[in-house]
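haha ok so turns out i had the wrong file open the whole time. this is the CORRECT one, sorry everyone. sequence first:
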Amino acid sequence: MTTANNVQTIAEKVKSFAMGFIGAFFLALGVSYFSEQSSYRVPRILLPVYEFLGNIGLAIGLLILGGILLYYAYIKFKKYGGRPVIMLIVLPLFTLLAFGINTLFNNNQSGKSAQNRQATEQVGNANRPELNNEKAEKYLDKLENLFAEMTKAKERADENRFKLLETQFLDLGTELAIIIPELAKTDQYPSFIEYNAYVSNKIQKMRMN
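then structure:
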C-alpha cells in the first residue's frame, strides 16, 4: 500500500509540473497574441472567446487560463508533499523558457531575424516612455522602485528583504495583465513593452544570481 501511495504521489507531482509548463506557455502565447498574428494556436476551451472577441479576447483568455494553471500546479504540488520553494523556482523558469521558445518560434516564422536582433538591442538601451495612461505610469513607477530596492537588498546581502521584494515583483504580473489590453490598441504599446522587458530582465538576472 505504501509503495502504491508513493507511486501515486510521484505521479501527481509530475502532473503538477506538466500543468505549470502548460500554464507558462499559455501566458507566453497570451502576451504575444495582443499583436495580430498570421495564425493562432487556440485551445478548444477558448475557441468561442476567439470567435467573438478576436485576438485580444484570446490573449486575455490565455493569460487568465495560464495563471489559473500555474496556481493549481503550485497547490497540487504542495498537496502531495512537495516543497513550495521548488515550485517558486521551477514555475518562473518554466515561464522564462516558454517566452523564449515562443519568441524563437515567432522569429523563425517571420523570417526577420535581423530585425529581431535590432529590436533586442533597442530593448537593451530602452528609455522610459511617456505614456498617456495613469495605470501604466504607476505600474512603471512600482517596477522601477522594486528594481532599485532589490538592487540595494542584493548589495547588502539582505535575503529576507530581497524575497519580500521578489514576491511583490511577481504580484505585479496581475497589474500588467490589466494594463496590456488597454495599451495594446495604442501606438504607445511597443515602447511600454520594450521598457517593461528591459527593467524586468534586469530583475530576473538578479533573481537568478
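The chain is about 80% helix and 0% strand.
again sry for the mixup
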